[in-house]
């Protein structure tokens, strides 16, 4: 009897949420107002982080900018302050260091107040074949791309829980849902970031903290320094995304309180294929899409200065 009742409730909810999602596909959700919200962005000193900071500033949010690169972060600070009346605070913070995250977080709480929108965006990439990746670079990938999310949640989530108000944003990657050749440490750390954010999303729902929203973002390659040199074979299926486009989509997803955002749309389809195709069929698809060679001409962040030769990449 219980099972019949449970199943009826489940099917009722399923149908309701299905119709709701179809409705919102036709009529976009009302966007939330972020004026006066305190938005912390890690990795705000360049690329996507900088663009998101500029967009949030134009909506009247208070900005807290974190980056290990003081110069880049100050440049973002100057850019957001160009708009009159914007409140912004820049902090140099090495997100690979737990103690430093906690120290700077305490400083933010004292000087700015509670963070209500946390965007974990700082990221690093090694871009070497697995056996050529030094151990410290593997560790750095996990520390920055995944573990920093855990420490920032520990620092800022308690106040969100108390107020039952907030938004947690995880910038993962397509490499956080699909393994990509030449990106083993990056993929592993981005899968970890995705899993952590998704698990907390469920935990918060179970704890009935439904006003703390989560947005998990998985973009394919973006035209920033990070994956400089990478290629795509069929841009109409897997384009290298414009950073302005990605920043706008992320902003919209946050304002519409969307939980998952994959870009481009083909990634949703690829994920479905991953579940249903045989591994050989999947590998044929990987070759067809050029995902086996997309990292072959990788140059990456210029500051890293670690351009790999073809010989180095092949050394396994
Ligand atoms: N560029 C892409 O193709 C792509 C694709 C998918 C996902 N992403 C993700 O998007 C996010 C933004 O990347 P981006 O493309 O703007 O790259 P980016 O290199 O322009 O920005 C990354 C920022 O993180 C900062 N950072 C690095 N290590 C840090 C540390 N230890 N502490 C604090 N800050 C640190 C850098 O200084 C830089 O400002 C990253 O998480 C990245 O993994 C990027």
Automatic annotation (TrEMBL):
UniProtKB keywords: NAD, Oxidoreductase
InterPro entries for the chain: NAD(P)-bd_dom_sf, SDR_fam
A single Gene Ontology CC term: lipid droplet
Keyword NAD listed: yes
MF terms (GO), sorted A to Z: oxidoreductase activity, acting on the CH-OH group of donors, NAD or NADP as acceptor
UniProt key word Oxidoreductase: yes
Family the UniProt entry places it in: Belongs to the short-chain dehydrogenases/reductases (SDR) family.
Protein name: Short-chain dehydrogenase/reductase family 16C member 6-like
Provenance organism: Vicugna pacos (Alpaca)
């Amino acid at each position: 009897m219980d099972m019949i009742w449970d199943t009826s409730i489940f099917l009722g909810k399923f149908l309701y949420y299905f119709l709701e999602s179809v409705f919102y596909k036709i009529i976009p959700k009302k966007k939330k107002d972020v004026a006066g919200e305190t938005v912390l962005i890690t990795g705000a000193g360049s690329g996507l982080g900088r663009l998101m900071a500029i967009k949030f500033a134009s909506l009247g949010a208070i900005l807290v900018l974190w980056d290990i690169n003081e110069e880049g972060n100050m440049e973002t600070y100057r850019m957001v302050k160009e708009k009159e009346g914007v409140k912004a605070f820049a902090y140099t913070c090495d997100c690979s260091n737990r103690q430093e995250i906690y120290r700077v977080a305490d400083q933010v709480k004292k000087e700015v107040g509670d963070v209500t929108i946390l965007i974990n965006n700082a990221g690093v990439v090694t871009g070497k074949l697995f056996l050529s990746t030094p151990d410290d670079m593997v560790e750095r990938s996990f520390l920055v791309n995944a573990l920093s999310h855990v420490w920032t949640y520990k620092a800022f989530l308690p106040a969100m829980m108390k107020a039952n108000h907030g938004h947690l944003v995880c910038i993962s990657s397509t490499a956080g849902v699909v393994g990509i050749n030449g990106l083993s440490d990056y993929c592993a750390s981005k899968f970890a970031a995705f899993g952590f954010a998704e698990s907390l999303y469920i935990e918060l729902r179970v704890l009935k903290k439904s006003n703390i929203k989560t947005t998990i973002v998985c973009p394919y390659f973006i035209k920033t320094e990070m994956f400089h040199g990478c290629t795509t074979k069929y841009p109409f299926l897997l384009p290298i995304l414009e950073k302005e486009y990605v920043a706008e989509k992320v902003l919209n997803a946050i304002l519409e309180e969307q939980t998952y955002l994959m870009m481009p749309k083909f990634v949703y389809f690829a994920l479905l294929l991953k579940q249903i195709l045989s591994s050989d069929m999947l590998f044929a698809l990987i070759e067809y899409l050029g995902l086996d060679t997309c990292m072959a001409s990788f140059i990456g962040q210029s500051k890293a200065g670690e351009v790999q030769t073809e010989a180095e990449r092949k050394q396994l």
